[in-house]
Amino acid sequence: MTRHQRLIRRRLWAGLIVIVAVFTIFGARLFQIQGIDSQAYATMAAESGTQTIAVPAPRGKIVDRNDVALAANTAGMTLTADPSMTRENATEIARVLVDVFGDEIDYFDAVTKLRTPNSRFEYLIKKAPAWKAQDALDRIKEAGYVGVFGQKVSLRSYPGGTLAANLLGHLNDAGDGVGGLEQRYNSVLTGVDGSQTFEVSPTGQRIPQAENTVKEMQPGGTVVTTIDRDLQWYADRRLAEAVKSASADWGLAITMDTQTGQIVQMSQAPTFNPDTGANQNKSTTVSRAYQTVYEPGSVQKSLTMAALADRGKIRPDSKIVVPPSMTIDGFKISDYWKHGVLHLTAAGAIAQSSNLGVVVAAQALSDQQMHDALNRFGLGDKTGIDLPGESAGLLPPASDWSDAKHATIAFGQGISVTAIQMLRAVGAIANNGVMVEPTVVSATRTPQDGTSKVKTSKKRVMSEQASSSVTRMMEAVTAKNGTAHTAAIKGYRVAGKTGTAWRVNPDTGRYVKGQNTVSFIGFAPADNPRFITYVVLDKPHSNAGGGSTAGPVFSDIMSMALERFGIPPTGSKPPKVPHKW
To answer: What single-letter DSSP state applies at residue 167?
Structure first.
């Protein structure tokens, strides 16, 4: 073999070794990619050519007892931009957006977003009405600009505007419930978002007819309330009218089915509009029916009489000697009218709303007996209503009572309650002595669990005989010679009680002379009660009274409730009970 041949042979071997080495390296790398790290590289390859967008789940509806929407959803749209495509026409596009949305969007902020460096995605406006957002998109497209996109979303809508606003609540910017049913049932109403993943080109454009993956969203559930929309609408307006005419700081009105505890209307004035955000502030968004506490005044007398009657210590015709005034622990107690010694029956003391008559009668109960009776009626405890932020009120322990405290609590001063507490307590008198847990929701409906009915509890707090006895006393209040004849309803027997309480300054904790909280609570038909309505007006004009100011509001709302639910007029007349002896 010549020298030249040996040189060629060595070169061939060297080349072969290099080729084998190269193929070995490529083979090892291919084995790593396809065998060891195949899943990771497949994912990277997929992600580099795919885009995933969220598919928002619509929030569930809140409906009334007849399935009429109180809170629902409307079509909305979120506008986004790809700054790499909008940078050159940022000022022109921003001008179109301002022309369409006005003050809802800031021109300079929009320009900045449209020119954001090193970005392919920026929000321009979130959750705009679909028709308005589409108008903006159409104008941008007609002008020949690109890079602005619309994504369909769901907007919360409250068809009734201010209707039952404090009961419903509203949503924050994150879409979570704030206050009322929106907050309490947020987990039921909130759905589970889905997603859609699709292939895109290197420039980020979606590839038509390419493979895509969809994860279905799950819509939110429905909350079925016990509210009657038509009754709510009427009560809202009747209450607002009363607050305005009485120059009151605020007012509330609640109607409950005495047998089931279902709230059929819960009104408050002033209120706010969750649909537009109008008048939305701290004083209007608080739910006064179960969060605001106050001293109940003479409405409390019905519970004092119930405590006495349940122990067999009083009947409607029981005789009470009422003095002109009383001084207890240095504290002078009198009635709202001047008088000498009176000879009233228990029914007469309630009909005339005599502080002194009730104080004298209540002396038959010890501090502990009276405290326990009021606590049995739920005072000092939360009612358990299915709404957030309920207050328990304040019922001082019997060990802290003085003789004066015993006397004032008997006629509704020195304790604090919520309206829903008093509604439940007096509702027990209407319901033959059985107290029911109030509720504003009858059921929830979700795609996963179907329909789930809301269960409520009930318990006996006084005898049926005592309940009947106190009802007869309360019927005397709406008689022609009672303190609330304006609360009477033609054709129906009505039992009720007025309330006028000294108003406590929330800042100082002291009574304010000349300022009162007036109220009226009553149920009908008194001989077979179906509904109980409670009306409260805070700080009305100086000559306002529970019977004259709150009584007519009660009469109108109760009349509407009886009509709406087809409750026939009473076929009997109330028994005559003497007021004096």
So the answer is: H
CB 226 within 8 A of CB 86: no
- Return per-residue pLDDT of the chain as tens, 581 residues: 676 666 667 776 666 776 766 667 766 665 665 555 555 544 544 555 677 777 778 899 999 999 999 999 988 889 999 999 999 999 999 999 999 999 889 999 999 999 999 988 999 998 888 899 999 999 999 999 999 999 888 789 999 999 999 999 999 988 899 999 999 999 999 988 887 776 766 655 666 656 677 788 888 999 999 999 999 999 999 999 999 999 999 999 999 999 999 999 999 999 999 988 899 999 999 999 999 999 999 999 999 999 999 999 999 999 999 999 999 999 999 999 999 999 999 999 999 999 999 999 999 999 999 999 999 999 999 999 999 999 999 999 999 999 999 999 999 999 999 999 999 999 999 999 999 999 999 999 998 888 999 999 999 999 999 999 999 999 999 998 899 999 999 999 999 999 999 888 777 878 888 899 999 999 999 999 999 999 999 999 978 889 999 999 999 999 999 999 999 988 788 888 899 99
Q: What is the CATH number of domain 229-564?
A: 3.40.710.10
| Residue 488 DSSP one-character state | -
**What's the one-letter identity of residue 223?**
V
What are the phi and psi torsion angles at 413 (to 5°)? Answer: -120, 145
Q: Is 229-564 the same fold as 76-153?
A: no
Domain boundaries, the chain: 76-153, 229-564
Domain 76-153 falls in which CATH fold?
Answer: Alpha-Beta Plaits (3.30.70)
CA proximity to 397, closest of 365, 375, 378, 430: 375
